[in-house]
Structure formats: structure tokens, C-alpha cells
Amino acid sequence: MSESTTASATTDDDIPETDESLAPAEGWHVMHLFYQIDRTQWSMLTPEEQVERKTALTRLVQELRQHPSTQLLMFSMLTPRADIGFMLLTPDLRDANAFEKRLTISMGPDVLVPIYSYFSMTERSEYTTTAEQHGETLKTDRGLTEGSEEFNAAIAEFNARMQKYGKDRLYPNMPDWPVFCFYPMTKRRSGEDNWYSLDFETRRQLMAGHAAIGRTWAGKIRQLITGSTGLDDYEWGVTLFAKDTFDVKGIVYEMRFDEVSARYAEFGDFYIGIQVPLQQLFQQVSL
Ligand code: 76R
Questions:
Q1: Helix or strand or coil: residue 274?
Q2: Is 183 marked active-site?
Q3: SS3 of 121, please?
Q4: Which atom of ligand 1 is the closest one to the Cα of 127?
Q5: Is 221 in contact with 241 (CB distance < 8 Å)?
């Protein structure tokens, strides 16, 4: 590398102080934050202090939920792996950064101990069906003639659905379903099993099989796949919501047999929680 030819920040004064937006070109920033409660610290607080701390977190959550285009979900986490979890979706990186710090210190120093976090972004799907592909299916499976009124109506309906679908992936409305599951995953890159050396058409076909299984879980599972290549240790965050734990276990088990998961998926740790309204959190985690 030669000497820098463009502006370089050699002193602090070179980095302009600004509150200019760091919102991405598309999508939102997403943070999954998991904490353990330090119950020794907590027990050393007076009852009045404990009320103050709970009020501080309550106020902060209410404030952040008022922030434009921001969603903040709260979870009471299962097993001592974590006690409290948050999922934050917000456009601006500066906000995501500041909100995360404020959540961590909201109950006072050392009460919420961060034990796991994941940073990702909402993203559109790379493998959604195109209008052309759908047109082929209309011809072969439904016997429609290209250009006919019925064909054109079906394509228009398809386009409207896909537009909404793409928007839901980038700007999702998170469900209020109670059972929450998060884990990060990566597509394998080893030897014969290198996802990234497959051509697009092969990947598209494999993903179509994956999506077909996924769709059989409609109504039981809501999923949000967020991208984290270059942002965190794995390539995607998988967030699942269900009304029944049985369905979380069921879909993840079934997908293990699908080639995309069986051959190409590697998983991180799993975090399971219950989505709770603010007023129920403290009771649920015994604070
Ligand atoms: O955009 C879309 O949703 C269209 C089809 C689709 C894509 C492209 C889809 C559908 N998924 C896609 C991408 Mn999925 N998904 C997972 C997991 O545990 C495991 O084995 C896998 C974890 C689950 C449970 C799940 C569920 N999916 C992805 C990607 C990105 C891959 C890439 O780009 O290479 C990952 C990592 C991933 C993982 N998926 C669905 C589901 C479900 C339930 C659906 C159907 C959604 C619906 O039609 O409403």
C-alpha cells in the first residue's frame, strides 16, 4: 500500500462530528441482545433502587418503541444461558449503536450482563421466483396460454404479492407470537460442499426446495432471515416465532433433512425465549 492519497484521519479533529444518518440504502439494522441478570448485584440494591431500575428500563423501552421505524421486542429467555433478550430493528446505525448501549446500562451497571449478541440487517431474498419463472409454471401446471386475460391477471396478482413480500422482508412487522427462537447460521464452504461455488441456478433450485418445506409451516411459524455477512460471525440470523414450542422443534428438525440444511448448513448456538409484554417481563424473570 502506498501512502494514503485521500483524506486520512490522523487526529481526532479530522473525523467530523456529525449526526448525519447512517441508514442503509435498503433495509434496517437488526440486533439480537441477550443478557444474564447478575442476581448478586441485584440483591445488594434497596427495594427503592430496584423499583427505580425497573422503571428506568420500562421508560427506555417505551421511548425506543416511539422512535420512527423502530421495533423493540422483549423476551424472557429459557435456561440459565440467558435471562433477558431484546430484538431491535431500526434503520440508522447510530441509533442501533446508541440504543444497544442504553439498554445494556438501563438497569444500572453490572445488572444486565451481556452474554451473546448478534448484528445483522434485513435483506431481500436472492432466490425469489421471477415473473418469467412463474409464467412457465402457469403454462405447464395450469395450462394457461401466455398473453391470455387469465394469464395476465395471474401475473399481475403474482407481481403484487411479490412486491409486498419483498417489502415484508426488508421492512418486516414483527409478530407478537410468544415462542421465540434465534440462532445464527452459515452456508458451508468445504471441499465438495461449498455453497459458494455452486452456480446460481443450482442454488436457486435448492432454495426452492427449502422454501417449499418452509411454506408447509405457514400459520405455525413466522421466520425472519437477516443477513450478516461481513457484520457478524455467521452469515445469517434465523429468527423464528411460533405459538407452540413443538413447531419450532418440528420445522428445524424437518429442515435438517432438506439438502440445503443437511449438506450446506452450519449452526451457531440456539437461544429460546418467550416474548413478553413490558409489564410482564420482571415477574417472568423473577426480578
Ligand atoms: O424469500 C423467501 O422467503 C422465499 C423463499 C425462502 C428463501 C430464499 C425461504 C423460505 N427461506 C429463504 C432463505 Mn428460509 N429458513 C431458514 C431456516 O434450521 C435450518 O435448517 C434453517 C433455518 C428456517 C427454519 C427457515 C424457514 N432461509 C433462507 C436463507 C438464506 C439463504 C441464502 O440466501 O443462501 C437461510 C439461511 C434460511 C434459513 N424459510 C422459508 C423458512 C420458512 C418457514 C420459509 C417459508 C416462508 C414463507 O413462504 O412464508
A1: strand
A2: yes
A3: strand
A4: 8
A5: yes
